[in-house]
């Protein structure tokens, strides 16, 4: 009986280790298999992207934590063109512009909000 309890605790621990780090992961699920974002999505959204080990996802995702460093982003490209936000959630996700794990994504998808225009 003791080994069953121990086994249950081990499985519960493993399951708790695979959660999304940000609340926006379900909104970004379409990026799980996008070649540009696979490393980021695997790190930040393993539960949403089904990257957990067998039996590894449980509960709801936690909130992400801001990194300590400056974000690198791409500037406006050559050739002109409008500089707009690519999605409706840019304004409420503006804080991600300076989170290193999201900086490249945000600079591309939310250029106006992140101040990457011109």
Automatic annotation (TrEMBL):
<keyword id="KW-1015">Disulfide bond</keyword>
<dbReference type="InterPro" id="IPR003582">
    <property type="entry name" value="ShKT_dom"/>
</dbReference>
<protein>
    <recommendedName>
        <fullName>ShKT domain-containing protein</fullName>
    </recommendedName>
</protein>
<feature type="region of interest" description="Disordered">
    <location>
        <begin position="56"/>
        <end position="82"/>
    </location>
</feature>
<keyword id="KW-0732">Signal</keyword>
<feature type="signal peptide">
    <location>
        <begin position="1"/>
        <end position="16"/>
    </location>
</feature>
<dbReference type="Pfam" id="PF01549">
    <property type="entry name" value="ShK"/>
</dbReference>
<feature type="domain" description="ShKT">
    <location>
        <begin position="18"/>
        <end position="52"/>
    </location>
</feature>
<feature type="disulfide bond">
    <location>
        <begin position="18"/>
        <end position="52"/>
    </location>
</feature>
């Amino acid at each position: 009986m003791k080994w069953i309890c121990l086994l249950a605790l081990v499985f519960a621990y493993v399951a708790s280790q695979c959660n999304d780090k940000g609340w926006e992961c379900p909104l970004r699920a379409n990026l799980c298999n996008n070649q540009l974002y696979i490393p980021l999505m695997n790190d930040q959204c393993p539960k949403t992207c089904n990257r957990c080990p067998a039996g590894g996802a449980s509960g709801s995702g936690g909130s992400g934590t801001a990194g300590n460093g400056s974000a690198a982003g791409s500037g406006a490209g050559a050739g002109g063109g409008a500089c707009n936000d690519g999605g409706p959630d840019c304004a409420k996700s503006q804080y991600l512009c300076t989170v290193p794990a999201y900086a490249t994504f945000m600079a591309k998808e939310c250029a106006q909000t992140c101040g990457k225009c011109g």
